[in-house]
Amino acid sequence: MMIQVILFGYFLTCVSGDGVADVVLSCTLVEEGVGVDGMGGGSQFRRTPATLILRDLSVAPDQSLETLTPFVPPSIPDPDAILFEAKVSSPQIPDAHVLLHADCNEQEVTCELSRYSPHGPQEAQEATHFLVSLSVEGGEFSTAFILQTSVVERDHSTLIQNKLGLPLSPSGTLLTEVIFLVFSHIKSVSARLRGDVLLSCGFRQQETPLAQEVAVEWRLQHRGKGWKVFEMKTRLDDAEGSTVVLAERKGSSVNASLVVGRGDASLTLSRLNALDEGTYICTVTLGPFNAQQVIQLHVTQPPEVSLSEEKFVLKADPPQTLSCHCSNYYPLDAQMEWWSLSPEDSEPKLLLDQGSLSSHRQHGDGSYSLSSHLSVPSSVSPGTRLTCRVSHQALDAPVSLTVVVESPTQGSYWWVLGFLLASVLFFHQVMT
């Protein structure tokens, strides 16, 4: 049976003591019920109100606690109420202070909780565990952590939570502690084509180590396919020769020293190409426990824009062609427009005839190029400004390049006349 807690965005910050505070999350417990066929098919989810209390979050010295209300458990414990009480002082949740300001910043907080079954020693399996995924809108805070239920001495007066079957504390809460967590400082990253990027992922564990062996795996999912990018196994006691690395993607790396010393499992990717774009999953395994973070990588490259002519001098028929080249951009979508501003106009106008577009050309690094060709008739007024405007998601603002239509210079008329006269004389001599 799967149980999930989903937070709908309402929470309360409470004072707990000097330098720490509690955050109370209003949640919904979701159980996967038995389906109509009696075997889970077509199952319906049952939702029950639940509460998650994060105890002892660190508060910055400049954070005022005067307006915070202490969390008060119910005066009469209710075995039907689902109150998870989690102490998060060790290990501390990085960037958890964001939760204290999320309400004021009108940021939605999302939390999911499900039962977790560790793999490994029997003592780890005897306790009850929950996996909590917690994030704040905007992508600046995201973590997944393992809660382990604390031992509650049972006697004839001990209350049992009716739905979960777990003993309650005297205050009516399910006492738990954070024993292992994986976090990321940012959920979505944009990086330039052919550049480098660092994808954030780290982990923490309780003071009493769960295990000395740690494994880090990075996988990439994109367009329905998935593959391993990088894998590392090492020991936190930094035993010599204990690190094993498998880099499936050339130019991918994780710093083993940072993994051991700081719990930093961030992935570096060098020389990005279009195939590197997608959803990255960082999985950290510590003994019988593992947790994940998901980071979205967007690869972008702004276009290089150029015109075929630096000077545009009118000539006689046939019409001349002015080309605008949009080169080496990613992703595919780029918009090209031609605008005109004649000497008689005060504002530029979008040309009705937008010319013709070439087919997209894709290069080895995945970038694209596109050209637009505008036919300029000889009837265009000298002094007219022709502008090619290019829009692309990698640009902060459209790029515009302009050329001014010039009338033929006097010298060009004499050159043409001389050329015609010389041609007539040449043909006259040939004929005679």
TrEMBL record:
Region (Disordered), start-end ranges: 356-377
Composition bias, Low complexity: 367-377
Signal sequence region: 1-17
GO biological-process terms attached to the record: antigen processing and presentation of endogenous peptide antigen via MHC class I
Annotated InterPro entries: Ig-like_dom (IPR007110), Ig-like_dom_sf (IPR036179), Ig-like_fold (IPR013783), Ig_C1-set (IPR003597), Ig_sub (IPR003599), Ig_V-set (IPR013106), Immune_Resp_Modulators (IPR050380), Tapasin (IPR008056)
Ig-like domain sequence ranges: 170-300, 303-400
Pfam (any one): C1-set
UniProt superkingdom: Eukaryota
Keyword Lipid biosynthesis attached: no
Keywords: Immunoglobulin domain, Signal
GO (cellular component) term, any one: membrane
Protein's name in the database: Ig-like domain-containing protein
